[in-house]
Write a structure and sequence with these properties.
Helices cover about 30% and strands about 45% of the residues. A six-stranded mixed β-sheet has the order 2-1-6-5-4-3. It starts with 7 loop residues before the first helix and ends with a strand. Strand 4 and strand 5 form a beta hairpin. It is of the alpha+beta class. The chain has a single domain, classed as Nuclear Transport Factor 2, Chain: A. It is built from three helices and six strands, in the order H-H-E-E-H-E-E-E-E. InterPro entries: NTF2-like_dom_sf. It comes from Nocardiopsis endophytica. This is Nuclear transport factor 2 family protein.
C-alpha cells in the first residue's frame, strides 16, 4: 500500500484483496455489506468472486483521503487488466458496511 490508509477496516480489505484471502475479505465486511460498481448496485459475493478471487484482483493505492475511506487505486485482474479506479468505503463498527467503486 503506497498511500496512507489509516482506517483499519479499509487496510484489512485491501490486504485481503491483495493476498487473495476470501476469509479475511469476508471478515472485513459487515454481514449486510453492500456495494456498487460504476454506479450500479451489485451482488457483493458474486462481484467479489468474479472481480477479485477468480481473477487474481489486486489494488495498488495511489492516493487516499478521509483517512483512507476515499481512495484512488490502480486495480488489476486477469479479466480486465489494469485500470485506475476510485473506491469509497462506509465503515460501521470497525467493518466495511458499503463500498462504491468504479473507473476513475
Amino acid at each position: 500500500m503506497s498511500a496512507n490508509v489509516n482506517d483499519p477496516a479499509v487496510r484489512a480489505f485491501i490486504e485481503a484483496v491483495n493476498s487473495g484471502d476470501r476469509e479475511a475479505f469476508d471478515a472485513a465486511l459487515t454481514p449486510d455489506a453492500t456495494m456498487t460498481d460504476d454506479g450500479s448496485e451489485r451482488d457483493l459475493n458474486q462481484w467479489a468472486d468474479r472481480e477479485i478471487f477468480s481473477s487474481n484482483g489486486r489494488m495498488d493505492v495511489v492516493s487516499a483521503e478521509d483517512g483512507g475511506r476515499d481512495l484512488v487505486a490502480d486495480y488489476t485482474n486477469d479479466t480486465w487488466g489494469a485500470m485506475r479506479t476510485r473506491w469509497r468505503f462506509t465503515v460501521r463498527d470497525g467493518r466495511i458496511a458499503r463500498f462504491d467503486t468504479g473507473q476513475a
